[in-house]
Amino acid sequence: MKIKSTLFILTLIAFNTFSQKRTIQSTEQWRPAIHFSPKKNWTNDPNGLIYINGNYHLFYQYNPQGNEWGNMSWGHAKSRDLLHWEELPVAIPHGKEYIFSGCVVYDKDHVSGLGDPNKPLLIAIYTADYPNTLQEQHLAYSNDEGLTWTKYDKNPVLSINLKDFRDPNIIWHAPSKQYVMTVVKPWEYTAQFYGSKDLIHWSLLSEFVQQGDIDMIWECPSLLELPVENSKETKWVLALSSQGPYKKAVGMQYFVGNFDGKTFTNEAPKEQVNYVDYGRDFYAAIPFYNTVNKEVFWLGWMLSWSYGKEQPTFPWKGQMSLARTLSLKRTAQGLKLKQVLKPDLTSSKPSFEAKNLVLKGSKTLSGMKFLQDKTYIIELRVDASNAKQWGIELGNEAKENPELTRIGFDEKSQEWFIDRRLSGVVPAPGFDMIQSAPLIKGEDKVLQLVVDHSTLELLAQDGTVAISSLRFPTKKESVRLVSLGGELRIKELRIWEIK
């Protein structure tokens, strides 16, 4: 009996060891090439985005000890072009407190009085999370472009003795000659604005309360001044991470209005909701600080809390979107947020170009080996259609057990979509779904799709429609143009290989 028990235990250990080896196999085939992901371990929200001395710096929520959420610290990477990233050592490690989301400010005039006055000074203000007790806003400073940080010895710089009070984001507001911090009380659906002259002492200016979507908590706010296209006008935008267009699933919303140095005023009815992205995988985007010519651009976390821990990748989980330049565009439906890729990967000569095509059914794009490498951009400009649906299919052509990701436009519902129901591995319930965004009426039907291994970013109608989505294919795939139920007239098809 004892021998049998011993054999059973040894067999069980061997089985578990075998199972673990199977589950931790590297999945580099899914790692994006131009979307940042850490070499290993868990990452979520981007933090402290800043441009200084020719480098874009990305700090981010990071677990230095494992491939799941926990031990929250700030990871760090830098890039000269927003495409090629150099991962750097952990920037701000956690202590008794977790280092949650926040921002980095270039204190060029050393108004804080911290650090070495003869060297450039970066100030990080972030949420210090004491699990299950309190969240406060803490400060750290760096004189070596963010490689190492000193935590301020008089922290916190802001506390209201609240368990959930987080995600500070700071701008310099020139008209009122002050720094303005936006921070949220998540469960009260409230964004607070604080002012400071020295980045250390903060005074409450005003609150923005319970407007737009209030079905899920508010997080990761940012206050942005954006140009209105084809005018000399600017408008202020308040962006928040909260619920997206799918119930009980995270996303981002924005409000367009005015900010006078104290109060943000929403110009739309308080019930109106504007979503930033209609995909399931775009969250917590914040803008870069200290940009050239005050250009406003951001990037977001490309994953969802609904299935983040189930992302089937190893040795990393979580990745960032590409950077997107922001502006506002006047449409038949009012001012809409416009997002275009930064850098503009479509400004160079395309790898393939065709004009005035007529399509009925499907056509496989062949003779372009780079389409197998899964990093490319397709732009489809449509002239007219009497088809029911049209767009792009990524997948194999097998009749049995096909894998297929469909991206395009539905003429009946007048919606853009990414359909990943048959796209490969389904890591969690609810992942296999159609993600759709309404047509902006009066705008051209132009589809621009970035394909980068497991990541898809659809920016349609001149960037006024966005759908960001993950998928995890397991088979070699072809790329097909598709027109279902009728004829499609394609004004222009362009494809860029991303090397």
Tell me about this structure.
By secondary structure, the chain is mainly β. The protein has 2 domains: 30-341, Glycosyl hydrolase domain, family 43 (Tachylectin-2, Chain A), CATH 2.115.10; 352-497, Jelly Rolls (Sandwich), CATH 2.60.120. The chain is 4% helix and 50% strand. It has 1 helix and 32 strands. It has one helix at residues 2-23, and strands spanning 41-52, 55-62, 73-79, 86-92, 98-106, 122-130, 134-142, 150-151, 158-162, 166-173, 178-185, 190-196, 203-209, 219-227, 234-243, 250-259, 264-266, 283-287, 297-301, 316-317, 324-331, 334-341, 352-365, 375-385, 389-395, 404-410, 415-422, 434-438, 446-452, 455-460, 465-470, 478-497. The strands form 6 sheets. Strands 23, 24, 25, 26, 27, 28, 29, 30, 31 and 32 form a 10-stranded antiparallel β-sheet that branches. A 5-stranded mixed β-sheet has the order 4-3-2-1-20, with no helix packed on it. Strands 5, 6, 7, 8 and 9 form a 5-stranded antiparallel β-sheet that branches. Strand 30 (455-460) and strand 31 form a beta hairpin. The longest helix has 22 residues, at 2-23. The radius of gyration is 24 Å and the shape is globular. Residues 1-22 have low confidence and may be disordered.
The class by helix and strand makeup works out as mainly beta
Q: Give the N-to-C terminal Cα separation.
A: 63 Å
CATH superfamily of the largest domain, by name, is: Glycosyl hydrolase domain, family 43
Mean residue pLDDT: 94
